[in-house]
Amino acid sequence: MLILYQRRRQNNKSSHSNVVFERKPSQEEYEPNRQLVDFANEVQMHYTLAMKKEKYCPSFIDGVLNEVFYAGIYDEGMGESWYYVEPGETLASLPAKLILVTKDKKYDFDFRSAFGGHIISEHFFSIFETLSKGNWEIAKLDIVTPKGEKSGASNYYFIRQRAEHRESIEIIDRSNSNIDYRKTGEIKHIASLAVKPDVDKDVFSIRDTSLLGYIFFSAYAAEMLQKIELKGFEIVDSREIGKIGRA
Asked: % helix / strand / coil in the chain, to the nearest 5?
């Protein structure tokens, strides 16, 4: 389904607004939204996820990832070859299953960026796996306390997109974005981000250090996520990226 425009519905409990996706507007709807509709027809809309504070949805994941649990693991660093390698070396593939050892009592979020990837709920994953997304690595995630006891968290997955599989920075529509550059030509700050309309994926990330941890969605993917009740984040227009904290 082609998404032609977006209308905002204000949520008094949040600093951001919810996005309601519609079909082509009627003439009565078009006139007061002329500028937004015309822009959407010219530039394909893309979205990202903003942090939303809710109970059991911490902004920081206090823990470590490993393949096995053992006493004292929580106090050790993460140096596994699937997590970190020296420059010039190749990052190993994710194991099929990982363990998150955390002091957090419970999780009830559906999406959080952490450990160079994203922790997503089974609910979120059910949508993620149906979308056009290119190459992503996926590991089933068990969550335990530093004593090895099962936490109060639901089922989660850890996903990541390796640098070589991320989209090139060339997909950024510079003419419709607001970006500050360093003298070297590197991106310093992105206040507003527009993506070129020829991107053929529903879910993707972009290969640039200024956008590490951000994940982007097509209008179709955003609509699918909007249909179900998900916690810990809000769907926002990528042109608002400079105003948000990423989920």
From this structure: 20, 30, 50
* Domains held by the chain: number: 2
Distance between CA 195 and CA 3 in Å, rounded? 15
212 and 119 both lie in a single domain: no
Contacts of 33 (CB under 8 A, 6+ apart): 5, 7, 25
Where a domain ends, among 146, 164, 182? 164
Largest CA distance in the chain: 66
What does pLDDT average to in each consecutive run of 10 residues of the chain (247 residues)? 37 42 47 50 81 95 96 92 92 97 94 98 96 97 95 88 96 96 94 94 96 96 93 97 96
Q: Is residue 41 part of a domain?
A: yes
Using the 3D structure, point to which of 118, 136, 164 is the last residue of a domain: 164
Tokens 């991106």 belong to: 187
- Residue 79 C-beta-side C-alpha neighbours within 13 Å: 5
Look up the domain containing 35 and give its range: 5-52+167-243
73 and 16 fall within a common domain:
no
The tens digit of pLDDT for each residue in 169-195 reads 999 999 999 999 999 989 999 999 999
With H, G, I as helix, E, B as strand and everything else as coil, classify residue 153.
coil
Tokens coding 85: 């390698």
Do 147 and 106 lie in one domain? The reply is yes
The answer for residues whose C-beta is within 8 angstroms of residue 147's C-beta and 6 or more apart is: none
The two beta strands, 63-66 and 97-102, are antiparallel
